[in-house]
């Protein structure tokens, strides 16, 4: 059994750990190791979440199991008339158990209750087909926008997906 609740400052360490571990696992076959090593640092994740969690414009939900172990989280922020999901990560051993769906549902309900958000967007690595399929199940569609970065010999492309609220 898994539970979802709004994250608070006491969750910083757990969220940073999940973010670090999941990021490595998610992108192990999708991004070069040197890029992953450069971009994914546990102490940087802790510092980042120490600043983000208390921010009024950021909404973060955390999933935990019956033993009160944190296993995943989702975070979004408000930007103009839009809310943007910035992170959705689960520890690898807790993927494909419906927890990501529960986290997404929590964020969708929360964002839809925000009067200033008319749509929800996110950025996803173009080659992360399992994530794209997951988002499509919730009605997200690519809007044609993308960001490209050249790292060594690898072109890294993120695509934007949007959903009306």
Automatic annotation (TrEMBL):
- Cleaved signal peptide residues: none
Q: Residue ranges of the N-acetyltransferase domain?
A: 2-165
Organism, per UniProt? Psychrobacter pasteurii
Recorded coiled-coil stretches: none
- InterPro entries per the record? Acyl_CoA_acyltransferase, GNAT_dom, YpeA/RimI_acetyltransf
Keywords noted in UniProt: Acyltransferase, Transferase
Name of the molecule in the record = Putative acetyltransferase
A Pfam family (short name) is: Acetyltransf_1
GO MF annotations, alphabetized: acyltransferase activity, transferring groups other than amino-acyl groups
